[in-house]
Design a protein that fits this description.
Helices cover 23% and strands 23% of the residues. By secondary structure, it is of the alpha+beta class. It has three domains: 97 residues, RNA polymerase II/Efflux pump adaptor protein, barrel-sandwich hybrid domain (OB fold (Dihydrolipoamide Acetyltransferase, E2P)), CATH 2.40.50.100; 84 residues, Dihydrolipoamide Transferase (Irregular), CATH 4.10.320.10; 204 residues, Chloramphenicol Acetyltransferase, CATH 3.30.559.10. The strands form six sheets. Strands 11, 14, 17, 18, 19, 20 and 21 form a seven-stranded mixed sheet that branches.
Length: 429
């Protein structure tokens, strides 16, 4: 019996995805566990594996299509000996909302569609890729049609601040291609017309919200409105830990050196073991208490933010933490993280010190219980032993879920972090 393949939910927050690439063509045999497509979720570019053996009989959603809803049919799989004629009327009505008019004699080269600027301007996938909404009488339904745009054209539109919703594409079946974006002309005097109205007082460019930005907005709004949080702040001297760090890095190559971030991750883990109330999650009718310390690191990527998790920090040394963090950051920018690598954890660290931010307060990323905000280091005069001296300090702010962590517990946790940073030799105990 023919099987319908649906757009999968590849993460708990995923509502829509983009079909970046099909690894199989119509008529190809597939095996259970074999990768058949690459799908871009709200946070990562992921490989999609087929669950059954069979033949990929029909691709319903073309490569390059964006904002495909979860559970929407994307392909049809048949078993050996079956054909598309075996699909029942019910199956056909369920999965034939999107038709692909690409000729089987002129298959799309999966290597053509790439998110790069050096795509062939003469003959490319932009000119042959077709995907459109059709009604039963083959007439387009204006209310239900999806705006189709090639990945390259979409990226160029975003870079130039072009709202492509009003553009009539020159590609097959009205698909928007690279040349449509390049030939787009803004209204005179840089006034952007939106919804047939001109804002004479404010000049602005309207850009569509991508799936990652939308999910981030929803989760942060949910966190801000549903988690009763509070913030604690403390200034910490980093003079001693910098001395230790410089000694450690004296004979190490630049790409292998230990940074303040690596030391902070280890110190936070040690403090979580000392104050175990921090290492918890709120689960409505129960509290989850964890044995290992899983720590998230906030990473700014294109159009969004992701927090990869370093698992079981309590079992790892600084060198392993350094290598794992480097790998996670690299794959975060490439959108190649697995869901298990950015989900979970009980605490995150956000460091904006490189931007000169003295101190700030972050929003908790559920289901985590707290987040640490690290500010820039600065030199200040201090009085010690009735004498004035110069010390280098940085500000650390803890935002905690009050349902789990009382103020005294949060203060104890911050105090432990401060003590370990100012007395790094205690890390050996």
């Amino acid at each position: 019996m023919p099987l319908t393949i649906y757009m999968p939910a590849l993460s708990p927050t995923m509502e829509m995805g983009n079909i970046v690439k099909w690894h199989k063509n119509e008529g190809d045999s597939v095996s259970s566990g074999e990768v058949i497509a690459e799908i871009e979720t709200d946070k990562a570019l992921m490989e999609f594996e087929v669950a059954d053996d069979g033949v990929l009989a029909k691709i319903l959603i073309a490569e390059g299509t964006v904002d495909v809803k979860v559970n929407e049919p994307i392909a049809i799989l048949i078993q050996d000996g079956e054909s598309l004629d075996d699909i029942s009327d019910n199956n056909t009505s369920e999965v034939s909302n999107f038709e692909e008019d690409v000729s089987s004699s002129n298959p799309l080269d999966p290597d053509i569609v790439k998110h790069t600027d050096n795509t062939d301007e003469n003959v490319s996938s932009e000119e042959i890729l077709v995907s459109s909404n059709t009604s039963t009488d083959k007439e387009l339904d204006a209310e239900n049609i999806r705006k189709f745009i090639t990945p390259l054209a979409r990226r160029i539109a975003f870079d130039k601040g072009i709202d492509y919703s009003s553009i009539h594409g020159s590609g097959p079946n009205g698909r928007i291609v690279k040349s449509d974006i390049q030939n787009y002309k803004f209204p005179e005097n840089n006034q952007i017309i939106q919804n047939n109205m001109i804002d004479s007082n404010n000049h602005y460019i309207e850009t569509p919200i991508d799936s990652m930005r939308e999910v981030i907005a929803k989760r942060l709004q949910e966190s801000h409105s549903s988690i009763p949080s509070y913030a604690l702040n403390v200034d910490v001297s980093i003079t001693e830990i910098n001395k230790i760090r410089k000694k450690m890095n004296k004979d190490i190559s630049n790409d292998m050196r230990i940074s303040i971030n690596h030391l902070l991750i280890k110190i936070v883990s040690l403090s979580m073991l000392k104050v175990p109330e921090i290492n918890t999650s709120w689960a409505e009718n129960k509290i989850l208490r964890y044995k290992d310390t899983d720590i998230g690191i906030a990473v700014a990527i294109e159009n969004g933010l992701i927090t990869p998790i370093i698992k079981s920090v309590n079992t790892k040394g600084l060198a392993i933490i350094r290598d794992e963090l480097k790998d996670l950051i690299t794959r975060s920018h490439e959108k190649k993280l697995k869901p298990s690598e950015y989900q979970g954890g009980t605490i995150s660290i956000s460091n904006l010190g490189a931007y000169g931010i003295k101190s700030f307060t972050s929003i908790i990323n559920p289901p985590q219980s707290c987040i640490l905000s690290i500010g820039a280091s600065r030199k200040i005069p201090i009085i010690k032993d009735d004498a004035v001296s110069i010390d280098e300090v940085m500000s650390i702010t803890l935002t905690a879920d009050h349902r789990l962590i009382d103020g005294a517990v949060g203060a104890q946790f911050l105090s432990s972090i401060k003590n370990l940073i100012e007395n790094p030799n205690l890390m050996l105990l």
